[in-house]
Amino acid sequence: MSQSILFLQSLLSLLLLLLCTNYAFCEPLVNFQVAQPPPFILDTESLQCTIPIIQRTFGSSIGDPEIVRYIPPTGCSTPNVWGGVTLNLTVKSSGTQLPRFAFFTFQNVEIWRSSTLIPNESGDDGIVWTYVKDVTRFIPLFSKPGTFILQLDNVVETGLDGEFAVTLEATIFSGSSRFPPAQRADLIIPLTTLANNTGDEASVPSGFSVEVTLPQNAVTAFAELQASANSRDMFWYSDIPNQFLSHFAPGTVGEGPFREVRVLVDGQVAGVAFPYPFVTAGGTAPPGWRPIAPYGALDMPTYHLDLTPFIPILVNGQPHSITLDVASTEPDHQINQNWFLSGLLQVNLDSSTLPTTGNITLYQADDYATSIASESSGDNSGINVIVNASRSIRIEAEIIAGSGEKTKVVFTQNLEYGSVQKYLQNEPPAFPQQVFQIASGETLSTHNDETALQDTFTYPFLIGYATPEGTDVIWAQMDHAYDRVLLPAPFIMGTTIIEHQAASGTEASTGYTFGTNGTSSNTFSYTDTEGNTYTRKVNASNNVITFDNQGGTLVPTAPT
Ligand SMILES: *[C@@H]1O[C@H](CO)[C@@H](O)[C@H](O)[C@H]1NC(C)=O
Ligand SMILES: *[C@@H]1O[C@H](CO)[C@@H](O)[C@H](O)[C@H]1NC(C)=O
Ligand SMILES: *[C@@H]1O[C@H](CO)[C@@H](O)[C@H](O)[C@H]1NC(C)=O
Ligand SMILES: *[C@@H]1O[C@H](CO)[C@@H](O)[C@H](O)[C@H]1NC(C)=O
Ligand SMILES: *[C@@H]1O[C@H](CO)[C@@H](O)[C@H](O)[C@H]1NC(C)=O
Ligand SMILES: *[C@@H]1O[C@H](CO)[C@@H](O)[C@H](O)[C@H]1NC(C)=O
Ligand SMILES: *[C@@H]1O[C@H](CO)[C@@H](O)[C@H](O)[C@H]1NC(C)=O
């Protein structure tokens, strides 16, 4: 390239930079995920202390997480009266890039799993998003100094130049009459790799186990799990049962479309989760995810179980093995590489230091879900693949605290799963015409007949593909919902979320260029046990918001 062209080029970029920093038309496109604002938006009385946690631009960052020391702020009341804590994540990106996972690990506990959105490949203006997450249930961690790690493995190479400029702040709400000291566990135990130099998520298969030793006066233990599919299992919902693979093109991914995340205590199933089929902003129909991210992309749903029935086993002062894995309905229960898993235990102790005793009085849990898979002929002599699975677990225990208090614990799970995949014979090999799955069910735990944990959920999920007449583009349509009652879940406000998102867009143009031809429609409603409400209906078409209506007590007031 000649000197003068190079000179002209740098002049031009300087000019653009000047224009972009000074004029509104270079504002980045604001992306977001539909979600309720944390109720602290209503806290006008508390002293609020905002402290910076992380400021870092993630370029090539594989094996190079951001590791910082956290010190609780002084001058914001003492941690034992804090009303809550929120994390504010703001990310800017421009250029071309794929979505990446972001694992937030604090004191070896994964407290938040997010993913990045896709920047605007053609403009210098890029995109920006902010997500404010309620992390009040982790106050026991925020109360003391510790290590905070953000693992965001980004790849910068030819054709992929997008970096992620991350700002993360924590806000502590000092407590007020409206927001009194938050309920909290005595102890949070990580079910992670415990690594100090990277995020602490485990990659399976095969399973992952960690040894934990509980204090002998522990009386309750609630588990929370993170689980997301990656790599060859990323599109697990469209995998084919191995027994039918011979009817599909070579290379078609097997192990079937069902996954369950299991938790085992000393090798015994303690509970399972039928995971929400999360997609990233680069998943099916990428242009449909701008500027409205797939539900869950910025704040992945977690799964709650009550491990209290295992307290009689866990409190003997010895280490016990807790295993996390993901199983399919194949005869050998194998899955493809890989899933990222982690978990934590919120543990409460008795007022007495005497050891807790008790017994598991009833144990009904199969090792794996029961399932049935079948094939039928579909339209145009295509194939339909149908897989159904179900789970029924009941574990009862009697727990006797050192102080003498007796608790009868009954933990049950009744979960259902169904999947129908439709393949047309005249489609490209192994390319589905439609994938539908629905997981639903209820997890319920009672302590002396009072609800300690309830999780009632329905996750319908549909992807359809079509090539409009006279075109050669693949048009993808996704329609999914997240309907969940999570009540009263200790240390977490009881919430009811009814969310529905339909998005469509071209499946892929060339390389990593996704274009702008997409639509999105969202309806969201939130209520909680504190009486807070929030609703939002928002539509977008070709990058532009076409309708936006918010209602309820948690609507942010516009800055004046
Ligand atoms: C979150 O951080 C961004 C960037 O620092 C800021 O603009 C925004 O006001 C913050 N939001 C809240 C709720 O703190
Ligand atoms: C991480 O650090 C803690 C505290 O220093 C230590 O107990 C633990 O063994 C370390 N983890 C690993 C995997 O080295
Ligand atoms: C637990 O069961 C064993 C026998 O299985 C019995 O000896 C013991 O008394 C029981 N403990 C409690 C606290 O019920
Ligand atoms: C299997 O699941 C599909 C999809 O939910 C459903 O239509 C079908 O009725 C189920 N079949 C059985 C036998 O439960
Ligand atoms: C990138 O941003 C420009 C300017 O806002 C817009 O015209 C273009 O459609 C965007 N492209 C993509 C792929 O979002
Ligand atoms: C977007 O896709 C639709 C459906 O294929 C097509 O009718 C429309 O012309 C496309 N618009 C643009 C701007 O490409
Ligand atoms: C949002 O989009 C959906 C799907 O296209 C449509 O049915 C609905 O009427 C739209 N809502 C508004 C308020 O425009």
From TrEMBL:
Protein name: Peptide N-acetyl-beta-D-glucosaminyl asparaginase amidase A-domain-containing protein
Pfam families in the record: PNGase_A_C, PNGaseA
Keywords associated with the record: Signal
Keyword Glycoprotein: no
Signal peptide: 1-26
Native organism: Lactarius akahatsu
Taxonomic path: Eukaryota, Fungi, Dikarya, Basidiomycota, Agaricomycotina
Domain Peptide N-acetyl-beta-D-glucosaminyl asparaginase amidase A N-terminal: 43-364
